[in-house]
């Protein structure tokens, strides 16, 4: 018997073109689609490393997933794949804050999704009423938010004038296994990933966790597997998702970046069986860490009213649980390579 959606209607298998589907979010979405649905995934990315475990031709879903190695900036094949698909999910973006200052043009051309209010009265962000407030032009970090806001408006304009069916997802700090990279292992030695991978790298190397401007900024964190449940609900319930912008986050998992570091030290000490007293934090300025042009908001709290009403979705995983799962993965995946590197510093 075919699975039914929230309205009791059978779920029709779709051909889904996933742009940037080989990355952190895409790899988890592919796993979900292959193991729990009949949908077809047409994955477009510059690397298949994070989904190679799904591409083995002997697997039962082998005929439902295909990978196309492609740089979408200059490859005309993308249009053909999009036109042949029932649904397109765009996950391609430059999402590491360190790049916003050094690669603002790439950021503007590549990114999309939401903008970040910076005034205290706008800490609680509502999809349909919160205004978008940005920092000054010379604070290039805001190129990310501005670019995503422009694309939101383009999508909505296409909907208003030409009937484009769309759903926009605003992800609030989705974290979990396979997020970003560890510098010098599966990413550039001078690369700066997002906060969870930065802290993981410090922990794996026994280095102090660097707190930008003291780690005072507060953030909410959502386990990526909870987030993927929300995305699948959107795919399988188009009548409830079309035309909506959804915040997808976990307001209950709000901590300061300093508190996050302290929690990660506690969890990693248990995972790696090392004394927590051997792990520490270090305050650094944003300019020293990111360079000139960095700026950010103090808090971002997603209002969850619309997604709860439309799809009945709520996050389930606590911060302690998701950090335990993620740091176990980080330790198992990277600790051997880093130990080898540290024991042979000249290589």
Automatic annotation (TrEMBL):
<dbReference type="InterPro" id="IPR001509">
    <property type="entry name" value="Epimerase_deHydtase"/>
</dbReference>
<protein>
    <submittedName>
        <fullName>UDP-D-apiose/UDP-D-xylose synthase 2, variant 2</fullName>
    </submittedName>
</protein>
<dbReference type="InterPro" id="IPR050177">
    <property type="entry name" value="Lipid_A_modif_metabolic_enz"/>
</dbReference>
<dbReference type="Pfam" id="PF01370">
    <property type="entry name" value="Epimerase"/>
</dbReference>
<feature type="domain" description="NAD-dependent epimerase/dehydratase">
    <location>
        <begin position="132"/>
        <end position="249"/>
    </location>
</feature>
<feature type="domain" description="NAD-dependent epimerase/dehydratase">
    <location>
        <begin position="16"/>
        <end position="113"/>
    </location>
</feature>
<dbReference type="InterPro" id="IPR036291">
    <property type="entry name" value="NAD(P)-bd_dom_sf"/>
</dbReference>
